[in-house]
UniProtKB/TrEMBL annotation:
Gene3D superfamilies: lambda repressor-like DNA-binding domains. CDD domains: HTH_XRE. This is Helix-turn-helix transcriptional regulator. Residues 13-62 form the HTH cro/C1-type domain. It comes from Candidatus Coprenecus stercoravium. GO terms for molecular function: DNA binding. The lineage of its organism: Bacteria, Pseudomonadati, Bacteroidota, Bacteroidia, Bacteroidales.
């Protein structure tokens, strides 16, 4: 997949646990896990906003685009 989710990186930088982030954002730990592993097919802007607020970051710190090798 060409979209990389860097929630784990931001959690490490903020020294925050997944459970703490899930509670701050208002989503279940299971849904956060789906986001973290890149298995989510979509993300609501309200969820992205809550993640950015909780992690004190920009959307580009969480989501990254990397072209697949066959796209080049």
């Amino acid at each position: 997949m060409a979209i990389i989710v860097n929630i784990d990186v931001m959690l490490a930088r903020r020294k925050m646990s997944s459970g703490e982030l899930a509670a701050k954002v208002g989503i279940t730990p299971a849904n956060l896990s789906i986001l973290k592993t890149g298995k989510a097919r979509a993300i609501r802007f309200t969820t992205l906003e809550a993640l950015c607020r909780a992690l004190d970051c920009q959307p580009g710190d969480i989501l990254e685009y990397r072209p697949d090798s066959y796209d080049e």
